[in-house]
Amino acid sequence: MGDEERSLIITQLQEQVARLADEKSIALDALEMATTLGTFETPVDAADGFQILVRETATRVSSLFRLKSMAVYLANEEDASFDLAYCDPESDGSWFESELEVLIEDGTFAWALYRNRHVIVSTRDEKGRLLLHAIATASRGWGMFIGLLDQPEREIYDISYALLTNILLSAAHALENVSLFEAIKKVKNSLAAQVADRTRDIRRSNRELEKALAHSKELAREAEIANTAKTEFLARMSHEIRTPINSILGMAELLWDTELTPTQKDYVQTSRSSGEMLLDVINDILDFARIEAGEVLLENVPFDILDEMENVCRVLAFRAHEKDLELLWRVHPSTVTQVGGDPKRLSQVLLNLVGNAVKFTRQGEVSLDVKPLEPADLPEDAPRAIASATRSFLLFNVSDTGVGIPTDKQSLVFEHFSQADTSTTRQFGGSGLGLAICKKLVELMGGHIWVRSEPGAGSTFSFCVRLDALTDSAPMYARTDTALSGTSILVVDAKPKTAAHNALLLELHGARTRVCHDLETAVRMICESEANDPFDCVLAAFDLGPDNGFALLQAIAAAMTRQLPVVMLFSALNGGRVKNRAVREGVAAHVVKPCRRGELLESVELALGRRKESEAVAIKAQAAVLPPMRILLAEDHVPNQRIVELFLKDQPVTLDVVADGEGAVEMVREREYDAVLMDMQMPVLDGLSATRAIREEERRTGRRAVPIIALTAHALASERTRCLEAGCDEFVPKPVRRAELLAAIASIAPEGAGAGDSACDVVVPDEVADLIPMYLESLHADIAAMHEALASGDLDAVRRLGHSQKGSAPSYGFDHVAELGADIQKAAESGDRDATAALVAELDNYVRNARIVQEKDGGPA
Q1: Residue 230: Cβ within 10 Å count
Q2: Closest Cα to residue 440, out of 652, 569, 289?
Q3: Sheet holding 708-712, edge to edge
Q4: Considering the chain, what is the average pLDDT of its residues?
Q5: pTM (2 d.p.)
Q6: Fewer Cβ within 10 Å of end Cβ, the chain: N or C?
Q7: CA–CA separation, 81 vs 71, rounded Å?
Q8: Residue 493, Ramachandran bin (φ over 0: left; ψ between -120 and 50: alpha; else beta)
Q9: Residue 560 vs residues 542, 552, 553: alpha-carbon distances, Å
Q10: How far apart are CA 399 and CA 450, in angstroms?
């Protein structure tokens, strides 16, 4: 081997060593850079976090390659463009922009983004080479690195490209983190701003709430003061109005009992009627005020709904039958009628609604129905609490065929002092408080009331209330009764609904029934049934269209070879004359429409011979006749003093009078009294304070407690409670009625008081002796009807019944009954409710104490 050859080999080895040294250096640099990649840290929370990150990225890339210049572009999300974010040197920025345009136009830029690896292309003038590499993650492209190489490609090692990819991938993740941080920061700032705004709103709301709460407390206090003032005002006005009315009505009552000319009677009756009307208006207003003031407390006692429905219909039967209206009550088969609740308030609502229906109906019918409430029954405005618990409620419907209510007026009828017809020429009277009171009472019972109506087509007033079904109670139609089992009864009534209703009542007692509506059909059915299934009894209405019950009796007698018992249905207007003729014509028993269940059963059993004829019942209550007593009256109003003196003038009473409570305390201290009549509103010392003083002195001295009767014109329920709590024994509201006053005194009179409980003999002709039990039953029914008519204010019905007794009683030897009947007729005609009530009570007392004596033997019958 020559020297040249050796020298060449040495040179090649030296170049190879140099290359290996370079590769070692590059490898060491790459190793060092790869080691530092794991600590690619950038203060992302800095304000210029993106710029710091871009500069750091460019610095790291420049350590891998020799570059004349370089630029970093970042994606702009708003317009999908790329903006120059970094350039070194800065003076080459425009050059890079022009190069970028070419790269975008020829698709190289997109290709580099797609590959996400290094791409080397020539510059626009072919004088240099550009290194492109996307800055991207797997999910998003963040930008592009572009560098102008200052070295041949052959001098660039593969590891440099790999490191470039790692550096730019790390940079992309870092950019993503910065972006996320910025987004989180914005959200945080937004949330912080929202929290700050919400905090300010809450603070402002709290301040406003505190102000509103303070204002509401002030309003509540003012409302309480106003409510107290209103209650006191009503009580005061009640007292101030009732005090003179007490004198007016009391004097009128006393004057009525004197000898008067017809003209004088007219004057007195006009005064009494006007006073009674004014008193009714005051009572309506006070009743409404009691409800608004929360003074109405509901009872929860067991009762039967049917009893209340029957009573309401019977009380209003006179008015309905006077207008020839059909008055019915009906019960849905699944209705449980034995419930717990407040029967008095329920009856008050029913009486008002049915009374209105009768008042506003000229012809047709009025019906009262009850059924379990179903969701479909409720109107849209029903409370949710009711709609979600309908099984606990019963629905009452009062329907009529009356004048109806215009749609635009229906929302007003339950407002106080409001009527559908507000014109001065309206046909129907009333204060406009009745339905408002019904609404309040229904809501107190946890229910809801509404109306559906069409002018000229009638109305249906409906209300639902929560009533508790009693334990072991069952629907009316599920209760078994065999009282009439095995009997076949023909029901004859020209009114189909009444006939069907009465037939159903009989079937509930086990009877088999058939129904017809005229005389000819009735006679034909009776004759046809004789061969196979003869009727045991006929229940026939007296009014049979063109015929009457007597014609039916004669037709049956003419067609039958046997006697068929007939029970006659009379309306409330059929007087005693008709009933007595019915007895003479052979009617076995009778009952008044609308039928009560018990009365109908008793009448049919009586006709079938399964029940004995009723006899007069001895009276248990004492007459309002007082024993000898010493009474103290504490009353500051002189006319009222005079009224009480005159009310007691015919009683064996010694009356002392003082004008204030202090005088009452002194008199009770000095004398023994059997009773004290204490007015509550007096000067010096009022009645409540005087009563407390008397009771305190009695406790201190051990003296016998004197009975004290409160006399007050304050009509609110709270006043009664205050009087009883103060120590009063009885309570009599003003205007004082003579009967009420005497009854109150009699209730606290010494033992052995009272008179008028001895029996009186009534001598009856021998030829009518067998008819007396039937007549007495009829007479008791008429007296009960009088009481019911008085309760409903129907004096005309009382007049008719009094007139009936005036004509029929002498035939049976009851001359005093005839005299009382005439007096009742006269009092009712004059509109004197108090006098009429007193006479009816006297008649009731006389009849209950009557002892029948037959004329032939002079002994008791």
Answers
A1: 14
A2: 289
A3: 653-658, 629-634, 675-679, 708-712, 730-733
A4: 80
A5: 0.50
A6: N
A7: 16
A8: beta
A9: 20, 12, 11
A10: 12
Residues 6+ apart with CB under 8 A from 322: 573, 796, 797
Residue 620 sits at φ, ψ, to 5 deg, of -100, -30
- Residue 191 bridge partners (DSSP): none
- In whole angstroms, give the CA distance from residue 382 to residue 513: 41
Q: By 3-state DSSP, what share of the chain in percent is helix, strand and coil, each rounded to 5?
A: 55, 20, 30
CB contact at 8 A, 82 and 101: no
Phi, psi (degrees; rounded to nearest 5) at 734: -90, 150
The residue type at 400: D
Which ranges of 494-537 does DSSP label H, i.e. alpha helix? 496-508, 519-529
Instruction: Determine how many CB atoms are found less than 10 A away from the CB of residue 847.
Output: 24
pLDDT reported for residue 332: 87
Task: Please report, in angstroms and rounded to a whole number, the separation of the first and last CA atoms in the chain.
Answer: 179
CB 626 within 8 A of CB 651: yes
* DSSP H stretches of helix in 756-832: 772-792, 795-808, 815-830
Could you tell me which of 775, 839, 786, 837 has the C-alpha nearest to residue 811? 775
Q: Is the pLDDT of residue 125 over 70?
A: yes
> CA 531 → CA 347, 528, 557, 608, distances in Å?
48, 7, 17, 20
Closest CA to 632 of 707, 541, 538, 716: 707
- Whole-number Cα distances in Å, 604 to 256, 555, 609, 847: 45, 20, 9, 25
CB 317 within 8 A of CB 797: no
Q: Name the residue with tokens 């006929």.
A: 538
780-795 pLDDT, tens digit per residue, is 878 878 887 887 788 8
The Cα angle at residue 734 between residues 730 and 740, in degrees rounded to 5: 55
Please check whether residue 401 is in contact with residue 454, taking contact to mean a CB–CB distance below 8 angstroms.
no
Handedness of CA 623, 627, 632, 637 (dihedral sign): positive
Query: pLDDT tens-digit profile of 244-257?
Result: 776 677 777 777 76
Q: Which residues 6+ apart lie within 8 Å of 649 measured at CB? A: none
Positive/negative CA dihedral, 207, 210, 213, 217: negative
C-alpha span between 157 and 446 (Å, rounded): 93
Residues 250, 735 contacting (CB under 8 angstroms): yes
Q: Which residue has the tokens 């007692």?
A: 509
Calpha distance 220→207 (Å, rounded): 19
Q: Angle at Cα 75 formed by Cα 74 and Cα 77, nearest 5°?
A: 140
